[in-house]
Amino acid sequence: MNRRPRTGPVGGEVNRDAALSARDVHKAFGRHVVLAGVDLAIRPGLTTGIVGENGAGKTTLLRVLCGDLRPDKGTVAVNGTLSHCPQHPVLNHALTPFQHLCLFQEAYRLRHLDRAHELVGHLDFADHLHVPVKVLSGGTRQKLSLVLALMHDPDVVLLDEPYQGFDWQTYLAFWELAAARRVAGLTTVVISHLAYDLDRLDTVIQLRNSVATTAPGAGQ
After folding, report:
1. Which of 51, 77, 190, 215 is the most buried (most CB within 10 A)?
2. HSE-CB of 1 using CA atoms within 13 angstroms
3. 120 contacts 46 by C-beta, under 8 angstroms
4. What is the pLDDT of residues 130-168, one digit of tens each?
């Protein structure tokens, strides 16, 4: 789910040189080992992709990084505010998008909704602000989920396939938002299955055999 801003470590000391770091993270479900000693350190202001085959542990890693899932071993540290946009939107179907914005305004302690409305306009769903979520398309729900994750301009945002269900123009609009975050010195971490996303990334974290390796992306 989208999370409130948070500062400081999640079970570890803050690495002042990294916006987000993990050390020796392990996670298993029963006998199935998903993460086996994952280490990573993401510098501030980068757009980082997490890639890997289905079942490699990408979503599990993001859930551990955002604090939604407790690791069996290891530590995670976030230097600044954090937000998470899950693969499947977690929304109240009886509420409208505008009502969601108002709720998150209170959660984030925002003085106004100017930034939220700017994002809604950029993703082109202002006409749906006062329609119950239950009648919205999957793509529009995903747009709303993305706005809720970004409306407070978090230092670090974790996005699990955030453009699922987007048309091509909205997909491009998403990457414009990611580029603007980079210019602002904010950190964006994206799970992706799309090979042509690599040109838009500064670094790539490859999950394979339950461990992570990091390499420069084509955008570096």
Report:
1. 190
2. 8
3. no
4. 999 999 999 999 999 999 999 999 999 999 989 888 999
Query: Which tokens belong to 215?
Result: 């390499």
Instruction: Please compute the mean of the pLDDT values over residues 49-62 and round it to a whole number.
Output: 90
- Where are any strands of DSSP class E within 52-195? 73-78, 82-85, 156-160, 187-191
- Is the pLDDT assigned to residue 94 strictly greater than 50? yes
Rounded (10°) CA dihedral 80, 72, 58, 17: 30
Query: Cβ neighbours of residue 117 under 8 Å, at least 6 residues apart?
Result: 126
- Dist. CA 49–CA 52, nearest whole Å: 10
Determine the 3-state secondary structure of 145 from DSSP.
helix
CA-to-CA separations, 193 to 59, 78, 83, 149, in angstroms, rounded = 12, 25, 21, 21
Helix axes 138-150, 114-123, angle to 10 degrees: 150
* Separation between Cα atoms, residue 173 and residue 72, nearest integer Å: 38
Tens of pLDDT, residue by residue over 176-201, are 999 999 999 999 999 987 667 788 99
Phi, psi of 94 (to 5 degrees): -85, -15
pTM above the 0.90 mark? no
Q: How far is Cα 56 from Cα 134, in angstroms, rounded to an integer?
A: 32
